[in-house]
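#data-curation
PF: Archiving a pair of folding outputs for the training set. Convention for this channel: one message per protein, sequence first, structure tokens after, nothing in between. First:
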Amino acid sequence: MKLEGLVDLYRSMTSQDIDRYRFSYKSGKALFDVFFFVDGSPFVLLFGVKSENFSFEIVVERGFEVDPKFDRNTYKELCRVLGLEYDPDRPFSPRNFFKEFNANIPNHALAAQKAAPHEVADYRSVAEEADKIYFLGWRDNTKRGEKVGILNLEKTRRLLGEKAFERCKQKNISSCWTDNKKAAKGFVLP
């Protein structure tokens, strides 16, 4: 299924050099934070409902194609957060969910809605220092005679994206994090 609505959003994002974008989407009883990540291949849509501690990711293939199917657990949980009751005559249709979503995708990206790492962390868990979700800066491990850790690289990938992950891996750089929101720094590639 093609999500035509992503085409204009993608163009707007790329014209503003935005790799990760966040917008809201309401469906049924659920208010979703939707993240559109275009910094890797394939692209990814991350849907999260903070009040329900529920999220799922959808791969967006070339041509903005998605597979409008869910595994059994995601399907059941999505029905629950949407406030749907089982009706054997009219079962919930993931295809219709994506059709409605497609009609509500914003056409233009706003720079103020770039996805911040701590916003992504609300829906993507990390193994390394899970409470530290605010970006603090970079550490050059070569200068310290150390090597960037696998868990740090994975956290970098999940919260900052593919470009940051690749750069850190190539240059032996670690991302540094804090649990203090006031100490957070703006993210730029090392």
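PF: Second:
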Amino acid sequence: MQVGDVKGLSHDAYERIAAMILSGDLKGGAVLNDRRLSDLLGISRTPVREAMGRLEGEGYLVRSGRTTTVSKVDLQDILQIISARILIERETARLAAEKISKASLDAMRDAVEALLHNEDASPDEHWSTDDIVHLGIAEAASNKYLAQTVENLRKRTKIFGMKRIPSRFEPGIREHLAIIDALERRDADSAGRLMAEHIANARDGIINSFVG
């Protein structure tokens, strides 16, 4: 097998294992075995082991001796992640207000309004629309390091699971529309404040899901 083939298979294994972690198919605490994953994915063990090593380096997997498990996300972890998101995404919204294009804003609004009128939308559909808004704003801020950080923190938020806070679905949609309105007005202060409040509200919903 050529080096390029191994790298390609390793990337494929990484994407597929990461997707299973983020979707909750591989839950926190689950023990992973490279042989079983190799059989499941139909990929040889070498690229699977490389993918697992990459995921371990990114904090999605934990190795203890010869055992590898999926990282657990507890309340303290998620609160720290969301605190970081509030600080960073407030700034990306402020920066985006000066630069975001009308085409980007129209695409966001169309996606959010479609979700608002879809009473049967799944948690995955809510998350996909959430990505369109948050990642679109981060990209419009024109700072690749901020955008990468937002994307990484959102992935870690997703591990927690949108299914746990369905009460946030409709309020979150309304908050997205308010953020988009502020961006259209080029009102950086309001965009930043509304983004921070939106993420803080999500944090409160998560706390309530633990208490409940």
